[in-house]
Amino acid sequence: MLLTFTGTPHAAAPVPGSTATAAELTDATLGYRSDHQADSHVTGATAAPPYQQLWSRDFGTVVSAPVAIGDKVYAVVNADDGTEGGPRMMLIGVQAATGKDLWPAVSLEQNEPQASVSYGGGLLYTQTARGTIAAWDPVTGRQKWSHTVGSASMQYPPVWYDGLLYLQDGRGTALALRADTGAAVWTAPLSEYSWAPTVVDTSGVWIGFDNIAWHHFDLKTGKELQRFEVPNVSGAYGNPVVLGAGAAWLRSSDSRDETVTAYHLKTGAALRKLPADATPAFGPGRVYVAYHGAVRALSTTTYQAAWTYRSAVNAATVRLVAGGYVYVDDCDGRLVVLDQRTGKVAWSYRRFPTPPPMSNIIAEEDWRGFVVPGIATSQGRLFVPSAEGTLIAFGKK
Fold first, then answer.
1. CA distance 77 to 390
2. Looking at residues 9-23, what average pLDDT do you find?
3. What is the mean pLDDT of residues 58-86?
4. Contacts of 127 by beta carbon, 8 Å cutoff, 6+ apart
């Protein structure tokens, strides 16, 4: 019997790193503050409280903001159990349902404590403080390529967008690499030295230094499109920039000016300034702004508050907005999940012990420590780094 093919031939499979996969477009957490906009919002999330613990694993001393894609979870961990006299930074991959290893943990080059991981185009990307960027196969844990940036001081992971990785070296240079090969595409000078993370959207690449300076670059060429600088002021630590509601939001670390300012994406004009001591997060029609432990759900049309959540220790950060819920990192040691509509507590979990009375508590310290913090969700599950290097999975049994 003669068989004939009347359909169209299958297109060649995309090169890993070049094109976003279906799994990462919805109900997935791609790394620190969720995605390339760092807005903490997970589109299409299906996880919802109340949660039950599915599994818990001790990975050593600390676990980074996880990546959650489909039924897999990845993170950078410090595998030192406290007896080795220094960090032992590893990339781990586990099954989301069971916590079992996908492959043996992989040691990162230049064993530096500031290390983290992100995902894009079907590959994982890690970075170390001294500037080793590497791509990894998420199925096997094998390294695809490695690129070293000279004289770097880095903490935040690279950001994948449309086949390129965007980052800055902490020494005054922004750069873009090909995500499939690690080859350099462009570099551009920055006005500040700091650990500021990079965010990206269709308008370009944004790198900010608290509310002291920011740069806006062309995606493909690195040409500077806009720049803002406060004259005669420097020393910014590099609070995260976040893109949301048609603006780039930058937070000041100055104790005399605890605010966040929104800048128009096209003109660079300052649109509004709000009291804040933590980076805002975004959900449909809302921006969530925390100040001295009061988390306000503001309309992105009127900027009036729909509700307010208050921390007993006057310090909190919103880490995730997903599936109709707002996930608050309350500095009293709990993860508190709020109903997005009403602000009522739907579920909570104690991650860390309650701080001693009169402690000096800072709401957000993303630029310090071994790894950047965060939580993740995918396919109805929640993944939470907790005390003493533990990663815990929650969901429905």
1. 9
2. 81
3. 90
4. 115, 116, 133, 134, 154, 156, 157, 158, 167
